[in-house]
Design brief:
The structure is a homodimer.
Chain A lengths: L4 E5 L5 H10 L5 E5 L11 H16 L5 E4 L2 H12 L6 E2 L2 H11 L4 E6 L1 H6 L1 H9 L4 E6 L3 H6 L6 H11 L9 E4 L8 H8 L4 E4 H15 L13 E4 L3 H12 L5 E3 L9
Parallel strand pairs in A: 1-2, 1-3, 2-9, 3-4, 5-6, 5-7, 7-8, 9-10
Helix pairs in contact in A: 1-10, 2-3, 4-6, 4-10, 8-9
Chain lengths: ~270, ~270
């Protein structure tokens, strides 16, 4: 049986990675887990995000995936290294791919980053960017109101546009030439973000770039799928499967089957 | 001492990879070998290109590099797998990075590839593209007149523009949305190529994309440089060092020192 790529997120955000993996690597089988019962992760403590990520990885490892993709910036920021040292397969996060793409794109050396409070507070993008290129300047902004809008499926409402314009206003005075969408939920609302930032700013989707990084890592470890038929993907979510399925089908442009997973309260012995 | 990235090419073409590595990974030390005495590789037999590549890799291995980059599409097409299995460090070629970028970029699924006769004859891009995404359509064209123009430093002459326009004419009837510059020499003449192809075609530089793949592979193997000072690069070429230095300094925008290396005829015992 074909080994899958396991992709996880706090909710529907990681579907932006799924869509790009489906497009860039159509032969790869995907198993997705969206922790919609506990979204958003952004305002949570690092310890809590680590625990939740660990639980999802444990759940996904039962399917013997060939790779784990932490398709959530908040979880990547706090749990990537820990997960990497604890599973026997490659683990890809979403922060370094976006950082690499920004470094390739920027000509002025000034990069903007937007993300959840947790991601921005961690300084993970700044660290990744400066690790690669110490002279890069970084301006970061937390956008706590964005993820709930996406999880509610409100991608293009007037209110969404207004929230985005107001939130991003502090960034528009800087001469940055690229802005990292440092949250996998943001590609859902990238049109309004592009509108607010203006045409001189290139948006970098950490989701798109992560799909490419997955391709690179699978190639260099000799693990690209050689499927003769198109794979059937599997989707799990911990919250309401109806809303998840609706958003997923709209975003992916195809019918999917969703299996609900309910987190259990441990039995008192 | 800091371990270097060793980069090789048939001549000055690999300097397009060098420039991007210097920009994207300014802390990395580079050792470059341009085989200007035996350029171009494009019209040579696979056996000859393999032998030449092997000789350069043997020369470079004495510096104990942490990675070998075959920054020549012709050499990547015929010698990558052989070199990969014979040295104890990661080996990065220039074909898969360009293929991956094209797959990320194309929306129509029709990708153009231009390269040397050797690269086009090998079918290496078509194989790499279809290995990742079987539904991609590929149109390839050999452009044997381009490399000599670049090695002579004639990047922007009227004759160069005319040769490029004439050579690329067969491609302009196809509805492709991206064109892979499947030769590391071509970024030197990318302006004229862009002009000939028109604004609807995105050019993919295998050189730029390779710098990013180097970044990804070094990161995932924990080998990114943590230099406190900027590295001093080393350049070797097998032909006239004056012409090499002139082209290199113009392209890289900085002074470099070039060490000539003369291939020896073996002694008769």
């Amino acid at each position: 049986m074909q080994q899958a790529i396991a992709i996880l997120d706090s909710g529907v955000g990681g579907l932006t990675v799924v869509k790009e993996v489906m497009r860039q690597l159509p032969q790869e089988k995907i198993i997705y887990f969206g922790d919609t019962a506990r979204t958003p992760y952004g305002p949570r403590t690092p310890a809590e995000v680590s625990l939740f990520t660990r639980q999802i990885v444990d759940y996904l490892m039962q399917f013997h995936p060939k790779m784990i993709v932490i398709a959530c910036n908040t979880a990547t920021a706090v749990a990537l290294e820990q997960i990497r040292s604890s599973v026997p397969v490659p683990v890809v996060g979403v922060i370094h791919p976006g950082a690499r793409a920004a470094i390739k794109t920027t000509r002025r050396g000034l990069v903007g980053v937007i993300g959840t409070e947790g991601t921005v507070r961690s300084g993970a993008y700044e660290n990744a960017l400066k690790e690669l290129s110490p002279f890069i300047e970084v301006i970061s902004l937390a956008c706590p109101r964005f993820v709930p809008l996406v999880e509610q499926g409100r991608f293009r409402t007037a209110e969404t546009r207004q929230v985005i314009r107001q939130t991003l206003a502090p960034l528009t005075g800087y001469p940055m030439d690229c802005l990292i969408l440092g949250c996998t939920h943001y590609p859902f609302i990238s049109e309004a973000i592009a509108e607010a930032m203006g045409p001189s700013v290139t948006l970098i989707s950490s989701a798109d770039e992560t799909a490419r990084e997955i391709s690179t890592v699978l190639y260099h470890s000799g693990q690209l799928a050689k499927a003769s038929q198109l794979p059937v993907h599997q989707f799990f979510c911990s919250g309401d499967p109806v809303m998840f399925q609706k958003i997923a089908q709209e975003w992916l442009g195809e019918q999917i089957r969703v299996t609900p997973v309910v987190w259990q309260v441990p039995q008192i012995l």
